[in-house]
Amino acid sequence: MNNQYATRWEKTKGLIFHFFPHHYVSRATYWLTRQKLPLLDTLIKLFIKVFNVNLQDAKIKNLSEFETFNAFFTRELEPDARPIDIDEQAIISPCDGKISQFGQIEQHSLIQAKGKNFTLNEFLTPNCQHIEYFKDGNFCTIYLSPRDYHRVHMAYDAQLMEMIYVPGRLFSVAPYAPKAIDKLYARNERVVCIFKTQHGYMASVMVGAVNVAAIDTVWAGPVTPPHLDHVISYNYQDQSIQLKKGDLMGTFNMGSTVVMMYSKDFGKAIDSLSCEQKVLMGEKIANV
């Protein structure tokens, strides 16, 4: 586990962010990143340079073919860019990113950072019909930086059971934030997706952040915006929506975090996993 506590500067940034107009800034970002801007190529080149973005695996490499900044940010990859671990025992990473935390869900408690926890009830909300399946289960939190591929895929073959839209703040989820802001993931806007596999239950939770102005899923399209003030639950148990390991599941329009959870009888992180480890979509991060 990552044993670092927040520094004084990180705590200060976290405190300042409480007064930041998260949603107003994010709405402006949503509008701006969907405009055909003048000098768009120049803007994208600057972004690539600042964040060290690698376009080698991108399906579109000619920057002039991107009509908007969001089209660039949510770019597809070449078909074979991310090999999927086909081992039946392998649960794969749903996205590119870095492991922030992982481990066992102790009763109903998940580790956010050293000395900071949040509960299943706070995170999934009492609306979740399958919350008890994750008691004493396992979890893995993956942070997507601005340079990463921002599409989220299925970690295992499964049937969609329910989806929950949870309103909330849009605090930054940059590496300092989980250490500095209490219950960060349980306070930010998020989309909870619950799946049933042949071995047990799996949750894939897409957590929003500042400038993450939209989250889409393949079965529902845009889930947010609009940014609402109440929880909305969607029941899919009778619709037989089946998705295979590696299938596209959703998209972050700008970057954020994915929290994977596995029921006690389903998945557990592989022994070689470590905090701050870089992972690519398709790589094994847990075993059935």
How would you sum up this structure, described in words?
With 288 residues, this protein is α+β, with helices and mostly antiparallel strands. The chain has a domain at 90-287. It contains 7 helices and 18 strands. Strands 2, 5, 7, 8, 9, 12, 13, 15 and 17 form a 9-stranded antiparallel beta sheet that branches. The protein is globular. The two termini are 21 Å apart.
How are the SSEs placed, and which strands pair?
Blueprint (H helix, E strand, L loop, with lengths): L7 H10 L4 H11 L7 H12 L17 H5 L16 E3 L4 E8 L4 E5 L2 E4 H5 L13 E6 L7 E3 L4 E9 L10 H4 L3 H4 L2 E7 L4 E7 L6 E4 L3 E4 L7 E4 L6 E2 L4 E6 L3 E6 L5 E2 L8 E2 L4 E4 L1
Antiparallel strand pairs: 1-18, 2-5, 2-17, 3-4, 5-15, 6-14, 7-8, 7-12, 7-13, 8-9, 9-15, 10-11, 10-14, 16-18
